[in-house]
Design brief:
The protein is mainly beta. 0% of the residues lie in helices and 51% in strands. The protein is built from no helices and eleven strands. The protein is globular.
Length: 112
């Protein structure tokens, strides 16, 4: 079984930073792609950033240059460093493994 636990969300002012973490249990982390998604109530969940098992990164246009995804296979943890946050980044952020497994989400709120 795979369990994903996100942490690091919170309330921050516009222009500030947050670092989200996604801790994974199980043995498949190092061979798995990881995605960070976000969802606003009433809207579809959208992909924010993605990192392959080889470390190749991709980002949504809306976060390019502001967010950085990374992974530490030894700690079976993925991260999302979010800088220059904007009010429109407010959402629940979810971690995903292999496009199959989901965490419970962590709330990010950016005040103007």
């Amino acid at each position: 079984q795979v369990r994903l636990v996100e942490s690091g969300g919170g309330l921050v002012q516009a222009g500030g930073s947050l670092r989200l973490s996604c801790a994974a249990s199980g043995t498949i982390f190092s061979s798995s792609a990881v995605g960070w998604y976000r969802q606003i109530p009433g809207k579809q969940r959208e992909l924010v950033a993605h990192i392959t098992s080889n470390g190749n990164e991709n980002y949504a246009d809306s976060v390019k240059g502001r967010f950085t995804i990374s992974r530490d296979n030894a700690k079976t943890t993925a991260y999302l460093q979010m800088d220059s946050l904007k009010p429109e980044d407010t959402a629940v952020y979810y971690c995903n493994l292999r496009a199959i497994f989901w965490g419970q989400g962590t709330q990010v709120t950016v005040s103007s």
